Amino acid sequence: MSASGILPGHRSRAVVTGLGVIAPTGIGADRHWESVLAGKSGLGRITRFDPAGYPVRVAGEVPGFRASEQVPGRLVKQTDRFTHFALAAADSALADAAADPARLPEYEMAVVTASSSGGTEFGQHEMENLYQQGSSWVGAYQSIAWFYAATTGQVSIRHGMRGPCGVICCEQAGGLDALGQSRRLLDTGSRLVLSGGTDASLCPYGLVAQMSSGQLSTEDDPSRAYLPFDATAAGFVPGEGGAMLVVESAEGARERGVPAYGELLGYAAGFDPAAGTRPAKGTAARGGRHSVLASVIRRALADARLEPGRIDMVFADAAGVPADDLAEARAITEVFGPGAVPVTAPKTLTGRLYAGGAALDVATALLALSAGVVPHTAGLGRTAEGCEIDLVVGHPRRTEPRTALVLARGHGGFTSALVVGASDRDDLKK
Questions:
Q1: In what residue span(s) does the Ketosynthase family 3 (KS3) domain sit (predicted)?
Q2: Where does the pLDDT of residue 425 fall: very low under 50, low under 70, confident under 90, or very high at 90 and above?
Q3: Which residues does 102 contact at the CB level (< 8 Å), separation at least 6?
Q4: Fewest CB within a 10 Å sphere: which of 48, 134, 249, 348?
């Protein structure tokens, strides 16, 4: 047995049996998928606060989410919006998987989430109380609501899941890392893992913190603000929301008699120090050291025991920053060859959701596998010079894909890849 507790040569098949989506494209996996197929964007002028005094005024907000209707009243006051999203998405994922935690052994259920900003909006309000009215006005729940692990803790408590629980903080890449960890936990005694990620940092404090990266788009037209791999790309749009997924062993799902959206076939991660020295947006690709992304892709494929030719579509990280888009396109081309695999980025409809982004991409990839289509990247015009990839634009492509590679890069250099495969669920096909 290794230090991780995994027996040598032993690996359970990890399948996803439930999806819970809270996204700018809609609440619920069905509504989100309808928006993806229709190319219906969730981007618009920020309404959660007046953005007039900020250079970034377009974002992807979750429409119609009322925490009081989705979350127990006590928790609405005690937790941040990113935890509200996760609690609602976790409920949906469990219902979708027909999984009743009360009927499963409590120590065999785990929770692993990704977190990026923590409870930003909650923290901002408490700081306002501190500086405007004094320390006695700061609520006791500030001590936990801001915390990166708040979502994992609250989901675990709500559903009585007392197995291994944790949180991974790798910004945009965290959602893939959480699912990679979920897969490992199935090999160490867990039978069901609630995993994924959400983020909700669309408040003045959160926006200012994000602006320090210099990567956010200042374009006021929502249809032109986030155009990854496009010749006019000029940064990305922030968003909120994400997805929670029920991951369990194929054997466990079969015993429960539930179908699976797909299987987690392979995972790898790395760190790209070059990302810490990335040039400002609008400049050419960085030189120097080779991007770690190609290596991460190859290791994820090796973990899945698949050759590049067996991958049917790639969900790109799609930074929207020309240098980073070019680096990603070159990594994909290096592994698969020029134009050899369809590449898509449905996140142009939602913006980049930080901790929620990669989890939502995986949910979308699983829905695409179940539907037999490659969703398109909406809104793009002319592909940027040097991006020799088969970018799916205009409309979805029905090719009956059986595998998908999801890529994610987090601020600072976090780089991850996850391979997912189709399963026995095909009710989305028309």
A1: 11-422
A2: confident
A3: 160
A4: 134
Higher pLDDT, 225 or 9: 225
Do you know the residue count of the chain? 430
pLDDT in tens, 182-229: 999 999 999 999 999 999 999 999 999 999 889 999 999 999 999 999
Q: Annotate the chain with three-state secondary structure.
A: CCCCCCCCCCCCCEEEEEEEEEECCEECHHHHHHHHHHCCCCEEECCCCCCCCCCCCEEECCCCCCHHHHCCHHHHHHCCHHHHHHHHHHHHHHHHCCCCHHHCCHHHEEEEEECCCCCHHHHHHHHHHHHHHCHHHCCCCHHHHCCCCHHHHHHHHHHCCCCCEEEECCHHHHHHHHHHHHHHHHHHCCCEEEEEEEECCCCHHHHHHHHCCCCECCCCCCCCCCCCCECCCCCECEECEEEEEEEEEHHHHHHHCCCCCEEEEEEEEEECHHHHHCCCCCCCCCCCCCCCHHHHHHHHHHHHCCCHHHCCCEECCCCCCHHHHHHHHHHHHHHHCCCCCEEECHHHHCCECHHHHHHHHHHHHHHHHHHCCECCECCCCCECCCCCCEECECCCECCCCCEEEEEEEECCCEEEEEEEEECCCCCCCC
- Residue the block writes with tokens 């797909």: 262
Mean pLDDT across 64-70: 94
Q: What is the pLDDT of residue 143?
A: 86
Distance CA 154, CA 365 (A): 27
CA-based nearest residue to 392, from 346, 335, 326, 327: 346
